[in-house]
Design goal:
It contains seven helices and five strands. By secondary structure, the protein is α+β, with helices and mostly antiparallel strands.
Length: about 170
C-alpha cells in the first residue's frame, strides 16, 4: 500500500475520514470557493448523492461551512460550500483527545479485571465473574478456561497513549 502525499491538511483529513471520494470533494472545495454541490459533482465527476453525503459529513464535523442562497436561475435555495481550513487542527486535536480517553478507559478496564480464555483464537475471553458462571469451561468449545495474561495488551495500550500524547506536545 503506497502512502499518498497531500498538499493540504484539509485534503488529508478529508481523505482519512472518507477516502478518495472525499479527497476529490475536498480538492474541489479548495479550488472553487463558495461552490454548490452540483458544481462539485460536475468538477469531480462524482454522483450528486455521493457529493452531498461527503459534504454533509464534512459539515457535521465542522470542516466546511454552507451558506443557503437563492438560485437566481431556478428560484430555489441552494447551499454554497466553503472549506474551513482553520478548523482542521482543532478537529485533529479533538480526535486525539477522544482516542486517548477511549484507550485510557480500555487500559483501566484491562488493569482492573482478570480474564480467562480457552486458548482457541475464535473463542471469546471471559471476565472472572462470567468464568465462574460457566464453571471455567468455554461456552463455545467446552475447553477449560485459563487465566489470560493481558500484560502485552496493556503495554500496547500504554504505548499508544504515550505516542498520541507526545504528538500533542510537539
Amino acid at each position: 500500500m503506497t502512502k499518498k502525499k497531500f498538499e493540504d491538511s484539509f485534503v488529508k483529513i478529508s481523505g482519512l475520514i472518507g477516502g478518495d471520494d472525499y479527497v476529490r470533494v475536498a480538492k474541489s472545495l479548495l479550488s472553487h470557493e463558495n461552490t454548490t454541490d452540483e458544481e462539485i459533482a460536475e468538477s469531480t465527476e462524482l454522483k450528486i448523492n455521493l457529493v452531498r453525503k461527503c459534504l454533509y459529513d464534512l459539515f457535521g464535523r465542522s470542516l466546511i461551512t454552507g451558506i443557503r442562497v437563492r438560485d437566481t436561475k431556478r428560484g430555489w435555495f441552494v447551499y454554497r460550500w466553503k472549506a474551513q481550513r482553520d478548523q482542521v487542527e482543532p478537529f485533529v486535536e479533538s480526535q486525539k483527545s477522544k482516542a486517548i480517553t477511549r484507550l485510557t478507559q480500555r487500559l483501566n478496564f484491562e488493569a482492573e479485571h482478570e480474564f480467562y480464555h480457552c486458548g482457541n483464537p475464535s473463542c471469546m475471553k471471559y471476565e472472572f465473574n462470567k468464568a465462574i458462571e460457566v464453571s471455567f469451561k468455554c461456552e463455545v468449545c467446552s475447553q477449560p478456561l485459563k487465566l489470560l495474561d493481558n500484560s502485552k495488551l496493556k503495554a500496547a495500550l500504554e504505548l499508544k497513549i504515550h505516542e498520541i500524547q507526545n504528538e500533542e506536545n510537539e
